[in-house]
Write a structure and sequence with these properties.
By secondary structure, the chain is an all-alpha fold. Helix content is about 50%, strand content about 0%. It has one domain. The relative contact order is 0.08.
Length: about 70
Amino acid sequence: MKTPNEKEIKNDTDEIPSFNSVTEHYRTIMGTPTNKVDMKTMPRVLRLFGYVVFAIGAICAILFIIMYALQFL
């Protein structure tokens, strides 16, 4: 008998619940994903791209706040 490894086991708690019947209908018709993204299972290049984009966004947001605050000095 084959034993499933950790990546093959689906966890039902990772599913995103529907907000209301409209979002449930949209998911059913359009086929939007219901599970959260597991970054550990993604390829390394995509993970690094995601981290870089998120880091650039965070740095830009911090710089924007600093520059906005310096306008009033």
